[in-house]
User: Fold these one by one.
Assistant:
Number 1:
Amino acid sequence: DGIRDRDVTGFRRVLFRSIVVKIGLYNGVGQYICIKKKYGADVCTMIIKFKRPAAIFCGIILMVFGLLFLLYAVFGMNGDEEIRAKKTIAQHDTSVDPEKPMIALTYDDGPYTPVTGRILESLKAVGGRATFFVVGSRIDGREEITKKITEYGCEIGNHTYGHVVLTKTDNENALRELAKNDEVIFDTVGIKPSVVRPPCGCYNDFIRQNEKRPLVMWTIDTRDWSHQNKDRTVNTVLSSVKDGDIVLMHDLFVPTAEASEILIPELVNRGFQLVTVSELINYRGEINGTVLNNG
């Protein structure tokens, strides 16, 4: 069991063995006698006493753990991707009564904490929900309000990462914009959106064929981004709202938050259930051609 080496190759071999012994067997199996700095026929002597079966056993254990780590690195990440693909927000609240009128309030281009937060509080006060079509580039620094959207039972939809008009870019970049936004949303709230709203409502045959989720349009356009007048937004909705409507607003403007604080309780008083787009699809299907079911 003793080993003596005087040539360089032998010294390296013994040194390698000494490392293995030191890692796994220093106290229980191996024992270092001495290691001297100088290397020569008479001076440099390294004697390592160890039990070969135990060293081999520990080497095998280390190899097994290394193999397991490698397998996890390769197949574990693939498993995460599968879970990510399956996770969606198409969850339908059991409190929805399909016999009663319902509408979906939708907000584009956020999140923006001062506005999104006020809308969420108004919805919470009446037990209502809405769908927020978020722009991924706006999530950075606003992770908390983004998480609050789902915590309050509302829905997050995909509105591209950089608010890119999908018909004004090449097809591959259009898909990248949607995919990147999915990634950012998933990394923030752990959910992949189940609905998409193309910026400006613009899409083409390529988008329809390659994006299998519903492309959500609207039936009432408040144009709140243009006039930024709360009374005009309120009147636009209340003057024409009906069962199955999808209302378009933008949670970037304070007047939209003010309008929502009026609209949300008033719509509930008029007997409307405030539901998410996914819930509306579940109970009403395609609404006047505004929800395109591609999958």
Note: The mean pLDDT is 81.
Number 2:
Amino acid sequence: SATTGLSVLGSGATLSKVTIDAAGMLGLHARYADNLVITGMDAYGNNREKFNIAPVSGGAKIGHTRGVTVTDSRFRNNVGPGFWQELSTYDSRYARNDFTSNAGDGLYLEIAAKAVVADNLFIDNAMNGIKVNNTSQVKIWNNTFVGGGRPVNLVQDTRRNTNPKDQAVDTRIPWPDPAMPWQPSDITVSNNVTSRPDTTANCLLQPSELRRTDEDHGEREPLPPQQRLASDLALGLVSGQRQPESARPHHPRCPGPHHGPGEAREGVRHQFRHRLRHGSARVLGRRLRDRPRTA
């Protein structure tokens, strides 16, 4: 396809074991596709013509849709995001997917609400593993992040759902919609594992410090409410600056910059076995042990 490989413009669609390869701009497009189910999809090498990443490119992009389930799928080597949802998409679930080696974010949640991202694998995405931009009610649980940019990036910009004529508003829903504020609130990040992000990235981004220090007295006080972008962020991961290489634990089988995809997956398996044995994580052991390697 010169531009889009597949477009879904109606409700109740199920895409099962669909492969979208080397579309000119975008693999999958969906709009007003309520209750969309995607399972076993392989979207790779899309945006072959190398259009700009924004406003549209990559493996898949969905907007103005309520109810999205994406499972057991792969979004890989796309010139853009692996999967991008925006335009007031509501109630999405991503489970047991691989987002690997995309030129943008692995998964991009933008001006949307209510998403669960659980039990997924993010490897070597050039920008972020997951970017959450002006999206509320997000649960990021039990995922694995290897290489790439920031594992999790939480972003708030100036956009708010205050104009009923904004193109991102879903006009099928009565406005104002209190469930769609376009603000990053009610976000939980818990029980995930990260390994060796790019040297230019933070290990994990927490978008603002929740407390600040009084320079005169050394005391800490809460930030004003408008600055507490992640006040309910459950710190299952530790935010802060990357540690130097010498300070980080290392194992010869852990994924590093010179390992291929198969070796990276084996390194992830080792890390989980170690963490499960020592009680520091309780996630993905069976899935990562049993899944076949992919090139």
Note: The longest strand covers residues 26-31.
Number 3:
Amino acid sequence: AARGARSRRPRRLINLATIALQQPADGTFPFTVPAIRTLKSLDVACTVTFFVGENGSGKSTLLEGLALAAKLPAIGSADLPRDETLAAQRRLAKALRLTWTRKAARGFFLRAEDFFGFTKRLAQQRAELLQEVKDISAQYRAQNRSTHAEGLAQGPMRASLADMERRYGVDLDANSHGQSFLKLFQSRFVPGGLHLLDEPEAPLSPQSQLALLAMIGEMVAQGAQFIIATHSPILLAFPGSRIYTFDRAPIQAVEYEALDHVRLTRDFLNAPERYLRQIVRTEAPSPQRGERAKE
């Protein structure tokens, strides 16, 4: 069920309306996952839809299949059609039927696990470009060539560096993971596009999750649509969102306040000692055999 939306919001456009499984399950993964095997039609005609569930429940698998079916580019990883780890998800994509109110030709798919590798590769590319600029400078000065010729030769590398810095800052890898993720997310945003995020909270502190919520709100106002797989009670609180739990088969809509993620987090924060007494051994460990207790 959709959570209550605030009044006087700008009119938003919806891209993707429903996701349906049009072929019967064939007994192989991912069709053995209960949430996917029992999928009939999922209404995602909402600006922000969340997939929630335990690891292995199928939420990320369906999101990957959806990204393939919608032909969205992936950020920070190999192109989805060529990604060797997504063979099962490609079979799922072929079995999905998507209905659109307005076909989105733009957007992206972003997995938190791909983000970490992306920052390392970006830092490596920047270092290589800087080295090329340095090598050209040394070569042209050794040949006593003009600074004008040197500048022309360095032009393509400097242009690439300038574009990289404009998009991600001077050194994306030098930022905190949260800052880097938010910069990457913002730099790739496309107004009016469909954006799929898989566990975006992984590199984010609670404060950065609030910043991500603010960004999503601004992007929704520009016609964007989001489908997000997450464990985060902070992100799940986005107003007006629709939440589906994959812990039940078939997939079911659920209210925010009824989510186990929310109730457990709230109960723990209200009385952490009640949980810790049961799950953490707090008494002092006894001396190991052959060791003398400290005086």
Note: Residues 286 and 293 are 8 Å apart (CA to CA).
